[in-house]
Amino acid sequence: MNAEHTVRSFDEDLKTLVKAVLRMGGLAEAQLANAVQALVRRDSDLAGQVVAADARIDALEQEINDHAVRLLALRQPMAADLRAIIGALKISGDLERIGDYASNVGKRVLVLNQLPPARPVASIPGMSRLVRDILNDTLDAYGTQDLHKAVEAWSRDEEVDHLYTALFRELVSCMMEDARNISACSHLLFVAKNIERIGDHTTNVAENIHFLVSGTPLRAARPKGGGIGDTGDRL
Amino acid sequence: MNAEHTVRSFDEDLKTLVKAVLRMGGLAEAQLANAVQALVRRDSDLAGQVVAADARIDALEQEINDHAVRLLALRQPMAADLRAIIGALKISGDLERIGDYASNVGKRVLVLNQLPPARPVASIPGMSRLVRDILNDTLDAYGTQDLHKAVEAWSRDEEVDHLYTALFRELVSCMMEDARNISACSHLLFVAKNIERIGDHTTNVAENIHFLVSGTPLRAARPKGGGIGDTGDRL
């Protein structure tokens, strides 16, 4: 009886952990959406809110960490349970980074709003939408432990890389056209890179889902080289 | 007797884990040194070696991961032992990223070697040397569990940020001077950013050392805002 109670309560503990990770993912997704909206609208208030809200994501990561370490110490889980906890630790680490990158976009917007508008801004929302779609699918896959969906989301990172490469070229062309665009476009290079990195971390999340659901790594067949995304352009 | 044996052997297990992390750190440090040497000498062979050698760091991380998870499962450690294992997991994650960034510098060198040389390259080795110094001290602190040294290394990340900001400005100026510099300088922007990010991850390592040695987080007093490093320049 007592053992059964312990088991049930451990399941509850795990569910709480997964829910916290999903909440963190939802926040990170919203941060990216808001940062890009702030960019397009040149809205410094919204950008400032994004920067400030990053602390909530960091706090959630700390909670998840503490909870996971407590579970490891108290429950001494094995096999799938152990993987679920290590997975939550790792996924929350990636989501924290995603939050960081979104917040960095927010900081760039604050700088960009001091500069004249640059045309390539118009290409950012498309790339961001794709990354958010993939992140959203990945989080769904985590919530439902859906291996197939995780792999499908993971394989779409290549599209992100293509969009990023196109954007990189557009930004360099824009700088070459007129030296007055250089400052703004330099910051936009990093905005684009930040969004591309969010895609990379989403890929990591998908890989971790694969591992925690199946017990085997997905890394072997990684869809791309090593996360640089734009060394293809010999400009 | 048996219990003592188990204890002793667990200590051995932990030492093996720490040594693997230190080896990984040494490799990551060497990768950064080689990548920057390849940049300065325009040496594509060396750059290619750096890119290829990243796989060894990734493999070491996987080994550390597997070892750590096995220890968690088999030994069910508590308190300081648990922190040591979680610490090794986290530190190896940061070292893997450091390796990634060094390898990205190598990839940029391969692109840069197709382009005319750009003057600001000369400012990269100084920044890289500082980051390597800090990484070296941080790894020493990990090997000796030296809290004081870890905090000291951690606090030097601010110097890195200043060098990065200066370099960012230099690169933008160089692009403005002559549009023919724009391609090379765009790639150098990312080289500089990669090295600055290596500094950030080194900071994370120092924070993890603090936690695993003392059981309390260092994050509260982080020396800087949020890892963007160059939003100060309203160019």
Automatic annotation (TrEMBL), chains A, B:
Q: Name one GO cellular component term.
A: cytoplasm
Where the record annotates domain PhoU, the positions are 21-109, 126-209
Q: Is the keyword Cytoplasm assigned to this protein?
A: yes
Gene Ontology biological process: intracellular phosphate ion homeostasis; negative regulation of phosphate metabolic process; phosphate ion transport
Can you tell me which family this protein belongs to? Belongs to the PhoU family.
- NCBIfam families assigned to the protein according to its UniProt record, in alphabetical order: phoU_full
Indicate what this protein is called per its UniProt record.
Phosphate-specific transport system accessory protein PhoU
